[in-house]
Design goal:
This protein has about 240 residues and is an alpha/beta fold. The protein folds into two domains: about 110 residues, 3-Layer(aba) Sandwich (Rossmann fold), CATH 3.40.50; about 120 residues, Winged helix-like DNA-binding domain superfamily/Winged helix DNA-binding domain (Arc Repressor Mutant, subunit A, Orthogonal Bundle). About 45% of the residues lie in helices and about 20% in strands. The protein is built from eight helices and twelve strands. The strands form three sheets. Strands 2-1-3-4-5 form a five-stranded parallel β-sheet, with helices on both faces. The protein has a four-stranded antiparallel β-sheet with strand order 6-7-8-9, covered by helices on one side. Strands 10-12-11 form a three-stranded antiparallel β-sheet. Strand 11 and strand 12 form a beta hairpin. The protein is elongated and about 55 Å long. Bound molecules: calcium ion.
Length: about 240
């Protein structure tokens, strides 16, 4: 698991890098917003720790640009008590925030919580490599991205995890309980109808002529499977 740490104060960045290394994470450090974008584009990350006050390109702008292409978890570092920063960051697509000055152990706990489902899903996907659905859709666990004809589809992290779980074993029919357990983790607090909501959103985003179901077939009374069969075989 690799973290992209975007922080312009070296003393703070060093502490985060040291704690992350102790947890077994690889780290990339970017000291300004432009460096963050260039690291993101060239190497990607499993999670982004993002300071909001940055030289060159603001943390909010970095957040918007990454979120426009990816559902990677983003944890912001904000000035303590700055409710406006927190609201602006969450509006820009961040998942969570920690107020400065922060306890590195608290930050690591937040990071673990956001990475846990992604790691389980990656194991389900197998080698962690690209999975193709229907020849045109790619599921990319490294970037936490679903691409259609090479362009990223804007899905949330939970939608990504549900689709990548289905795609990891395309011949299997998955019950809603199994989708929750594998995609979202045992401690997920949703309920099985939540899966239907994710599937509904995925279908809206992935549907195309001839594949109005967004490559996800409903197996009545049981659950879902990837709909990757020839049109003649589809019922
Ligand atoms: Ca700063």
């Amino acid at each position: 698991m690799r973290l992209l740490i975007v922080e312009d104060e070296p003393a703070i960045a060093e502490v985060v890098v040291a704690y992350a290394a102790r947890e077994g994470y690889e780290t990339l450090w970017a000291a300004d917003g432009e460096a963050a974008m260039s690291h993101w584009k060239s190497e990607g990350a499993d999670l982004v720790v993002l300071d909001l006050m940055l030289p060159k390109l603001s943390g909010l702008e970095v957040c918007r640009r990454i979120r426009a292409r990816s559902s990677v978890p983003i944890v912001m570092l904000t000035a303590r008590g700055s409710e406006d920063d927190v609201v602006a960051g969450l509006d820009a697509g961040a998942d969570d925030y920690v107020g400065k000055p922060f306890s590195p152990r608290v930050l690591m706990a937040r990071i673990r919580a956001h990475l846990r489902p992604a790691r389980e899903s990656r194991e389900a996907v197998g080698s962690g490599g690209l999975v193709r659905v229907g020849g045109r859709i790619e599921v990319d666990p490294q970037r936490v991205e679903i691409r259609k004809d090479g362009s990223a589809v804007p899905v949330t992290r939970s939608e990504f995890l549900v689709f990548s779980t289905l795609a990891s074993r395309p011949v299997r029919t998955w019950s809603r309980d199994d989708i929750i357990r594998v995609a979202l983790g045992d401690d997920y607090e949703g309920f099985d109808r939540t899966v239907d909501t994710y599937v509904k959103n995925l279908r809206r985003k992935l549907a195309e002529p001839g594949h109005e179901n967004g490559w996800i077939r409903t197996v009545y009374g049981f659950g879902y499977r990837i709909d990757d069969a020839d049109p003649e075989e589809r019922s």
